[in-house]
TrEMBL record:
Protein's recorded name: tRNA-dihydrouridine synthase
Keywords assigned by UniProt, alphabetized: Flavoprotein, FMN, NADP, Nucleotide-binding, Oxidoreductase, RNA-binding, tRNA processing, tRNA-binding
Organism lineage string: Bacteria, Thermotogati, Deinococcota, Deinococci, Deinococcales
Functional summary from the UniProt entry: Catalyzes the synthesis of 5,6-dihydrouridine (D), a modified base found in the D-loop of most tRNAs, via the reduction of the C5-C6 double bond in target uridines.
SUPFAM superfamilies referenced in this protein's UniProt entry, alphabetically: FMN-linked oxidoreductases
Source organism of this protein record: Deinococcus hopiensis KR-140
Amino acid sequence: MTSGPGPISAAQIRPDQTSAVPTRPGRGGPGFYAHQLARPGAVLAPMAGYSDAPLRQLAAEQGALWTVSEMISSRGLVLGGDTEKLSLGRPYPGETRRAVQLFGAEPDILARAVQKAEAWFSPAAIDLNMGCPVPKVRGKGGACLLQTPEVAYALVQAMRSATTLDVSAKIRLGWDHDRSVEIAQGLAEAGVGLLTVHGRTSAQRYTGEADWEAIARVAGAVPVPVIGSGDITSAAGARARLRLGVAGVMIGRGAVGNPWIFRALATGEDALPPAPERAATALRHAQLHADFYGLDRFGVPSVRALRKVLPGYLPDHPELREALVQVNTVEDVRETLAPLLKQGGMEGTPASPRLPAAAEYAGRHP
C-alpha cells in the first residue's frame, strides 16, 4: 500500500478547466508562466525554512502549477562560497516547474547570479525578491527595493539581459504605504513576465489581514499576469480570491502540512485524505528530508527541522503534537505515527515509495 495519495494525473483535471495550449515539459524557457497558468491550480510560495526540496516535491506531486525556492543571496552565489551543492537552490532528482528566487540590490551581481543559478540549479524561471521584510535583508534587496523602485527596475533589466528564462518579481504593497500600482507598472515596463503581490506593506510584516482589493487593483493596471498572495489557508478561500480578477494565487503557510490544497485547486476535489494517509505522507516528508540533506554534523540523518512542520499534517490529532515537536530521526517519526499507520494498514509502508520516472512525471505535469 502506498503512503498517501499519489501524484495527480492530467485526467483528474476537470474537463471544463483544460486548455488548448499545447503540452510541453515545465522545464523553463520563454513563456513558462503563461503556459502554466493555462490550467487550474495554485503556486507554492517561497518560504525561508519551509519551501525546500522535500516540501516542493510534495506540492508538485499534488498539482502545484509551479513552486518557488527559498530566497538565495545573489552576492553569495557570485562573491561567496556558494556552489551548485547549495541546498537552497539544489533541485530534487527530476524536479521541474520551479522558479529560483534571488535577492540583491546590484544589477551586475544579480545578472551574474542569474547565470550561475541557471547553470547550477536548472530552474524553469527566475524570481526577484522584493517582499522580504526581515531586518537582516535590509540594504541588500528584499522589501527595501520598494523604497527605491527605480533600482528594482534596473535589477529586472539586468536579470532579463542575462537569461532567456522568464523573469518575475514578488512584491508587497509598498514599504509603509500602498504604492503597488506604480511599482508594478514600472516593473512591467522593465520586463517582468509575471508579478506576485502580497497584500501587506513591509511595515505590516505578517500582522493584520492581506488587502486583496489592493492586489486586484494591481491586476487591473498591468499587462502581465498577477498572482495574489496572503492569508490563503483553504481551497475555498483561494477560489474566492481568484474571482477578484488575479491570474492565480500563491499559497504559503496554508500549504505547510497540507500539500493536498494544490490537488483541490487542480481537480476540484477538496476532501482531505483520512488521518492514516496524512500520517503516511508526514512520514514520507521526513524520509525525503533525510534523503535530501543526508547526515548532519553529528553524523545523524536528522529531521529536527521538521518539528515545526509535521504537526500540521494532523491538526485533528493534537495528542501527537508533543512527540512530533521532539523528533530527531525518521524512526522517531515512524514510532510516533505508528498507531495511525497501523489503523490504516500502513505500518509496514516504506517512508519513500517508488515514484514515477522523471519522464513520466513530466508528462503528467507539463
